Structures are given as C-alpha cells and as structure tokens.
Amino acid sequence: MPKHSRRYDAVAERIEPDKLYQPEEAIDLLKELANTKFDETMEIHIRTGADPRHADQMVREVAVLPHGLGKQIRVLVFTSGEGADIARQAGADYVGDDDLIAQIEGGWVDFEVGLATPEIMPKIGKLGRVLGRRGLMPNPRTGTMVQPRDLGRVIEESKGGRVEYRTDRTAIIHCSFGKASFDTGLLLENLAVLIDSIVRARPAAVKGVFLRSAYITSSMGPSIPLELSALQALRPD
C-alpha cells in the first residue's frame, strides 16, 4: 500500500467507508477537504464496461463544459494561408506548419490543445508518436481537425471549457471538470454536461452495464465514491 502524508490521512478520515455519495454532497466535501496552498483541480474517474482491446468499444469524445476548467489553455494550430490568419485573429497561441513541426520533433510540447486544418494533416502524421500519447494529436474523430471556417469557434471552445476524454487500457475514463474554488453549482453543471456526453458516447458494441463505478477527487485529495444512479440523473440545462 502506498504511504500518504499526514494531511492526506487526516482528510481521508472524513470520508465514510462503504458509503456512496450523492454528487452534490461529494463535491461539497471535496471542496472542504481541498486545503492545499493552490487551487486544486477537480477530477472524475469512471470505470466503464467497455473492453478497450476491441476498437469498436473504445470511447473517445469531447465535451464543452459551460464554466470552463479554471486554467489557461494554450492552443496550437497547424495551418497556413487563410487558416493562419483566422487562427491568429481568434487568439490561438501558436500558429504555423513546418516551423511548429520542427519544434515538436525537437521535443517541444508546451501546449494543451492541438488543432489542424485538413491540408496540413499529411504533414503532421509523423508527429503521432510524440503527440498521440499525450492526447495532443489532431484527429477528425474528436473535432480537432478543423476546416478554416470553423477555427474561430473551435479555438474559443478550446480556451473555454472544451475537454477531450477517452477510455484508457483499463477501461477507465479520467477527466477534469473544474477547480476547487468553483461554486458547487458550477461544478455540478460542468459534471452534468460531461456525464451526459459520456453516456451519449457509449459504443453500440458495449453490452451490459456501461458505467460501473465513479469517483471524484481533487489534485491532492482522497477519492470519494459516487452513487451512480444519482450521477447519471444529472441533466445539463
């Protein structure tokens, strides 16, 4: 068993063993327990019934959280010509093609969202080994391969509350949904949109129960188990 700090053990004692918490109750408790010197990120971890060994059971989607993530998001856009002008006007942090490709091949990856227009996709295929494992590789499935006319909207969403989630090799989805400093109501609204998106993203090939367990936690806090029916009952406005 891993050893935890005395602070962690002290806050973990506040969580009742074998209890499944209502989402609002769990968020209130987690906010109270997030007592570090920085604004901790709120995360949800969901075990699914998908079998990630099968491509038709992989879950990979995006959701736009109405109240954002509470942090600065740096957006990189692989594009040229008109697309470059649109991306810069929309507030993208890094815009280019061959120059950015060379930087990334050299090991630079200081951004949180990667977008690309279709004509650049063949050029960046070689970056898959670097960007793919970090979830930064533009992909038409997740809406990060973008037509120039849509760049403004997607950049705005990315800097706001756009999050990408996917099942890992153990069929678990890990995703942030805000900061501990957010009001409980705002966190619940973000969580409602995220859960609605995940339920809608259920692959047809998954049989039986899709969401099997769910826990929320903060960056430095213990995890709190959620009552699944209450979690799935959350509805976005």
From TrEMBL:
Q: Which UniProt keywords apply?
A: Ribonucleoprotein, Ribosomal protein, RNA-binding, rRNA-binding
List the SUPFAM superfamilies: Ribosomal protein L1
Q: Which domain of life is it from?
A: Eukaryota
Cross-referenced InterPro entries? Ribosom_uL1_bac-type, Ribosomal_uL1, Ribosomal_uL1-like, Ribosomal_uL1/biogenesis, Ribosomal_uL1_3-a/b-sand, Ribosomal_uL1_CS
GO BP: translation
The family database entries (Pfam families) matched by this protein are listed as:
Ribosomal_L1 (PF00687)
Any coiled-coil regions, as ranges: none
Is Ribonucleoprotein set as a keyword in this record?
Answer: yes
Q: Which GO terms describe its cellular component?
A: large ribosomal subunit
Tell me the GO molecular function terms.
Answer: rRNA binding; structural constituent of ribosome
**NAD is among the record's keywords:** no
Q: How does it assemble?
A: Part of the 50S ribosomal subunit.
Q: Which HAMAP family match?
A: Ribosomal_uL1_B
The family this protein is said to belong to: Belongs to the universal ribosomal protein uL1 family.
Protein name as catalogued:
Ribosomal protein
Give the species this sequence originates from.
Geodia barretti (Barrett's horny sponge)
